[in-house]
Amino acid sequence: MKSHGFILDFLKGSSWAFALVGSYIVFKSFLIFGLSSALFLTFLFIFVALFLIAAVDAFIINKERDEELKKQTKILQDILYELQSEKEN
Predict the structure, then answer these.
(1) How many domains does the chain have?
(2) CA–centroid distance for 66 within its chain
(3) Is the pLDDT score of 46 beyond 80?
(4) Which of 50, 3, 5 has its CA nearest to residue 23?
(5) Residue 7 gets which letter from DSSP?
(6) 34: left (phi over 0), alpha (psi -120 to 50) or beta
(7) Where are the alpha helices (H) located in the chain, listed in sequence order?
(8) Could you list the residue range(s) of the whole structural domain that residue 40 is in?
(9) Which end of the chain, N or C, is surrounded by fewer C-beta atoms within 10 Å?
(10) What whole-number distance in Å separates Cα of residue 33 and Cα of residue 27?
């Protein structure tokens, strides 16, 4: 399970790098068409990249929440078992 966390953290970091480097490349590439179009397309690229970063972050949060719920369910099952065994005695 730990390897999945490393992969997701790496994916999140690489998404940030993609957003930064990609916005620079988009700006430089479209600068020949004018400053306003280059800025507009760069902001559009940044918006899409930040949406993808938010999606990866939401996936990480949901994964952590599911792991925590599994731990809590296990603890509650242990408590229920202990209570039932005390009732029988």
Answers:
(1) 1
(2) 14
(3) yes
(4) 50
(5) H
(6) left
(7) 2-30, 35-88
(8) 2-88
(9) C
(10) 10
